[in-house]
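User: quick one, fold this
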Amino acid sequence: MFSRRKKRKTRVEPRFEDRRGRRSAADFSVTAADRAAPPPARKRKPSSKKPATKAASGARRKPAARSSAGRRRKSSGGGRGFLRGLVYWSFIACIWGGVALAGIIAWYGAQLPAASAWVVPDRPPNVKIIAVDGTLVTNRGATGGAAVGLHEMSPYIPKAVIAIEDRRYFSHFGVDPIGLTRAMARNVMAGGLVQGGSTLTQQLAKNLFLTPERTIGRKVQEVLLALWLEHEYSKEQILELYLNRVYFGSGSYGVEAAARRYFGKSARDVSLPEAALLAGLLKAPSRLSPNRNPERAERRAQVVLSVMREQELVSDTEMTAALASPAARANRYWSGAHHYVADAVMEELPQLIGEVRQDVIVDTTVDLYLQTAGETAIRAAVAEYGAERDVSQGALVAIDPTGAVRAMVGGVDYAVSQFDRASQAKRQPGSAFKPFVYLAALENGALPSSVRNDTPVRFGNWSPENYRGKYHGPVTLETALSKSLNSVAAQLIMESGPGTVVRTAQKMGIASPLKANGSLSLGTSEVTLYELTSAYVPFASGGYRAAPHLIRRVTTMDGEVLYERTESPSRVLPPDLAGMMNQMMSQTVRAGTARAARFDHPAAGKTGTTQNARDAWFVGYTAHLVTGVWFGNDDGKPMKNVTGGTLPAEAWRDFMVAAHQGLPITDLPGYMPFNVIPKPRPEGFPFGPGRRPSAPVDGGTPIASDRSPPSGAVARERIALPPPDRTVTSSTGAPRPQADVGAQQGQSRTVLDVILGQ
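Assistant:
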């Protein structure tokens, strides 16, 4: 028996060798040295074959020795292989990066509408409000200013914006790789976002189509839209779109709105330092607004000027001059009383043309000269007497006999309070309502010479009292109205009936609800100054009423007329009744409660003071203008020693003196009984104290002041009267009724009667 020894056999790989045991040149065999790792050992079944000799087996397992030259060749080949691998994998990375970028672009681009549907959205409509003489009152709308063509605006504006925001604007294709790279480098060095790489085109795309959120998706969409804008529009068109829509702070969108907001001028007239200030605001409109931080705004403007000089967009001389005279800001934008007019226009406009969908021009009836005069009169009165008499607010409305509103001041300072006390505040008018009570009595057959007994009266539980409890006994209606006697007014409303007085007031123009009771004679039903003033217009026009209006015409920027006022005045009073009322209320100004309102034009009107002097009114008129004035406090706090005949009458006179500069002195429509032949008018007639124009009136002799008339005498001046058939016009050129409208001079019909076929 022989012992069986377990031996590990070595696997023999197939070999192709020649007879001499040498490898041929075409040998494709694999040796152990060529393997990456030795094959795993596997158990084999015992075999009867003799194992190979130890020498032969060891020879096969031992790798062949390598020469030093071979090692050098392998080292050199490894370096080249690393470079080849680096290039190869970099190329692969670029391919996959491009695929990923294309995927991102496709993903976010798919969220946008189809490119065929892309269109620049319409700019929010602007409402350009124009005064009666064609000057701009203000702009209203979401933008705050009209669009201005690139060729129309100051050339400094686009230069300054391009210099500080996008110096390569005219050379890039919507995206600036150089600027983007520079911005990224600076942000990395600063460790935060200190500079943006967006071009003007990208900023426009964001403003037009996208939200302000900072995400990768929005940035991708911004780039796509910028490329589309560059393809569809020229550089000049894109720049014009940008300048008319970009935000400049303080609610100003576009250069026109910003120029008017900060400098009180059009973008057409902006100077170099002003353009630099506007361009500097684009970095941070709210933070750099000159209204909030004028010092920072000016420093930023100097940076813009230096950049413009570096790029040779301005000369050394221009830059030196600009630095020497920085931009001067206008007064507070919202402080002007003309904004009350603009608010009223914007409230009425949709009723005339519907929703505003495009830029429109609104021609108003407002005279900016009269508007400024009214604002000055109200502010001056409150500034002088506010603390002394506990009065904080005032309002004024001026309407001509055609119903056109020439001025409307809704408060002392619009910047402090935008509430319009002229057209929105309803308050008790007090005795300023009495003319409608007297008019109803005249319509019921009374005359100015009719007599009533001024004595304490009682109607049921109502017992009206005169001011300070003073009574005068038998008085004419003319005297009773001029002295504002409450007992007589109460008697008249009970004679005519409260319902009749309500209908009379509504016929004249009162629109607010009125309570038909006896106390209505004392003005207990609330009205606005606007409607009360308009209700006095038929007295000044000789019996004609036209609805008060601010808007004459509305047109598009292309001249298409969207609305034009065509309403004609209608007669609501016979000429004799209008004349009677003028006779009585002119006595109020000459010798009654409104003596402080006297000036060098025939005038009439009525004062009003409510209980505890909470409200003080005066509504007066000449043949040219009807003006109402109110003073009081928003909280209804009583004033001290203020009645309708004091502060309101004085402010009314100051305004009317300014409003009548250069206008011919014209009689109010007069009253004369039918059986009396008119007497010739005297060459001169007395006037009460008041300011007078220093220039000759209508070719006459200069009028001197009569504040200190000669002792025992009444100052008289010769004046040149217009011919009887002359049409009187206002300072704005608007037509006026004839000077003798309503007067009975041989015929009972007036010129307006003939025109209207009555």
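User: anything notable?
Assistant: The chain is about 35% helix and 10% strand.
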